[in-house]
Amino acid sequence: MSECERSIHTALASVDDPEIHRPITELGMVGGVRVGKRGRVSVRLLLTTSGCPLRERLRADVEAAVRGLPGIRHVDVEFATMTARQRAELGERVRAQFGGVRGVLNDRPAVYAVASGKGGVGKSTVTANLAVALARTGKRVGVLDADVWGHSIPLLFGVDRAPVALGGAMLPVEAHGVRLMSTGFFVSDDEPLIWRGPMLHKALQQFLDDVHWGELDVLLVDLPPGTGDIAISLLELVPDAQVVVVTTPQPAAQQVARSAGRMAADLGIAIAGVVENMSQFACACGRHTPLFGAGGGTALADGLGVSLLGRVPLDVELRESGDIGVPVVAGRPDAPSASALRDIAGSLPESRKSLIGVSLPLQAL
Ligand SMILES: Nc1ncnc2c1ncn2[C@@H]1O[C@H](COP(=O)(O)OP(=O)(O)OP(=O)(O)O)[C@@H](O)[C@H]1O
């Protein structure tokens, strides 16, 4: 290998695959490097699927890494698709690298399960925005959309592609700096989900076990509304999760949300706090109107003996951002709801580190 080729390989080692978060050189994704005349270089990248949506990001990252080298004027990036064998090898590498899929959670992320007593109170919107806000502070964040009947996380993040499967493990889809996994990636909207009890439990377990989350600091779980099977399953599978209860200011909503709190208490799970969503509406005329009443969040927090983490105002920008798949914290960071959500993300209590992925020493009694 010439000196020039060696320095190109070193530069390529600084480029990470955006979803596996490992250098493309380590993952066998560099199919070849050709050094031509007059500072022209061509790099061939091997992708897991031909329709890889991240190819433009990879192209830009490779160009940026190689173009800075002395004597290099132009970088061509070509793409090819891995053979089945190459994909299998990549899957093996991913597994070996992290000591098995479950082992990737060994660094014990903080797990926050976002719950609500009833649907439509903005639980998924809050989850998505807390995730983006945390990612923007430099944390490595994942969102598990366990809201199997109303999976809105893919829509809220503007994602309509399925996750890539490698060597028996699925890679989360990355959007707005957050790693996502959702049942919504696997079912079409007109296909009703009739999973109950044990099936839901198994699906959830798979999402925790068979998804290559990589190293995470925080995992947010969007629970289905209510206190049904899946919430209980999750809290059993991840006993160190803390629950964030989302409610509206209405006394009625607060009553239902109280049952979520009671469930957490029954299961011995800590409640991180309460988020009051759809608090008063700030009109452009300057008037603040409590459309859904007032005081629900505080009353619930007091009832549960936890803090009110914050109030998110009713905000057209928040709703519009959700509709176009760009969470408001990312797309309109100056909106009143965005700043409230950032403050709430900053006020989440420090984690009790989750034990998922850690093998516990078993002792005979
Ligand atoms: N603070 C807010 N201001 C304006 N619109 C909001 C606000 N919070 C949520 N919404 C809108 O309310 C609707 C319901 O929100 P979302 O889907 O997050 O609720 P949910 O509690 O997760 O519902 P479900 O559990 O049924 O999925 C969405 O259209 C969302 O954009």
From TrEMBL:
A Pfam cross-reference name: ParA
Stored Gene3D superfamilies: Fe-S cluster assembly (FSCA), P-loop containing nucleotide triphosphate hydrolases
PROSITE patterns the UniProt entry points to: MRP
Binding site for ATP: 117-124
Keywords: ATP-binding, Hydrolase, Iron, Iron-sulfur, Metal-binding, Nucleotide-binding
SUPFAM superfamilies listed in its UniProt record: Fe-S cluster assembly (FSCA) domain-like (SSF117916), P-loop containing nucleoside triphosphate hydrolases (SSF52540)
Domain MIP18 family-like: residue ranges: 7-78
MF (Gene Ontology): ATP binding
Similarity section: In the N-terminal section; belongs to the MIP18 family.
Subunit structure: Homodimer.
Function: Binds and transfers iron-sulfur (Fe-S) clusters to target apoproteins. Can hydrolyze ATP.
Protein name (record): Iron-sulfur cluster carrier protein
Species whose genome carries this gene: Actinoallomurus oryzae
